[in-house]
Amino acid sequence: LRLLWAQARSRPVSVSLAAMPIAAYGSSLSRHNTEEAPLDSLDKMTVPYKQQERRLSTFPPPLKDVRIMMASYITLTQILGFIGIFFIPYCKIATLWWAFVLWPISGFGITGGAHRLWAHRSYKASFAYRAVVMLCNSIANQGTIFHWSRDHRTHHFHSETVADPHDAIRGFWFAHMGWLYLKKDPRVAEAGRKVNVDDLKEDSLVMFQHKYDPWWNFFWCFFMPGLVAQYAWGETFWNGFFVPGCLRYVWVLHCTWMVNSGAHLWGARPYDPQSNPAENRLVAILAIGEGWHNWHHKYPFDYAASEYGVFTQFNPTKLVIDLCAALGLVSDRKRATAMWAREKARMDDSKSR
């Protein structure tokens, strides 16, 4: 088996990601990090980047490296979120519950939407389902689905290399939020341009949101929570704006960012010990099921993003997708458990010899 694998890895590959058809995207991800196929174009593209030096991250960064508009926006929202803390005592109980409920609602727009549905295409969904999840994603307001998915595909194709948009090897601060403050490394931009996003361009909902960016997301993220609180139970608009709007927004941002930072730095690595992403229970709780990251990077096409079911590993995102599948809104959920079982059997057989 080792000899066959060595021969497979030595075969030259001439396929480029830019030329890869859409149908090949899912199949390439399903083969990635397994021993069931020869070296594919994703690995081929990653090799040169692994051999290049990283730019060291410093804090505070030099002004010339800062994206002024993005840095100003993120800093402003952090301040607004902090101010929101002082509005909590003046809010009605219904408003606090509204803020709490918007955490998983907006979070699912990222985890079940931009991540598992659009970036990885790990399952299929009806138009009605996708429309609702697009709205959830807009409440999360982490950029458009189009940009989020493109950057996330780049991250998986070049994970932990200089072409990774939020390379965790550069440290916690960079992986968590520094990558948004700083100008992209040219190699990140180059890798992003080569990612196939034709499927995203063909999705009318994705492109609708993208067309009206940023005002569409701003309304759903900041103003909708305040308007609902004001007209549904008589809350002041500003209490609704600052607590279910700004404070909740900043909280969900950091929960998502912890997947890029904490889940790449701390935790067990039972599926791929050579990979930096780890199984992190705290991150799974904060990001409603996204913390089982060693499994996810080994099998990124798996819609569950974890090995076990929801009663063993905290994964509300999987539960919602499964419930929607029972209602006929979701189909073609891809799983990697059989693949992992075969790999474990091969490893056990190898150890016994």
TrEMBL record:
Belongs to the fatty acid desaturase type 1 family. It is found in: Membrane. Coiled coil: none annotated. GO terms for molecular function: iron ion binding; stearoyl-CoA 9-desaturase activity. The chain crosses the membrane at residues 70-90, 96-114. One of its GO terms (biological process) is unsaturated fatty acid biosynthetic process. The keyword Electron transport does not apply. Keywords: Fatty acid biosynthesis, Fatty acid metabolism, Lipid biosynthesis, Lipid metabolism, Membrane, Oxidoreductase, Transmembrane, Transmembrane helix. The histidine box domains are involved in binding the catalytic metal ions. CDD domains: Delta9-FADS-like. Its cofactor is Fe(2+). It is a multi-pass membrane protein. GO terms for cellular component: endoplasmic reticulum membrane. InterPro entries: Acyl-CoA_DS. This is Acyl-CoA desaturase. The keyword Transmembrane applies.
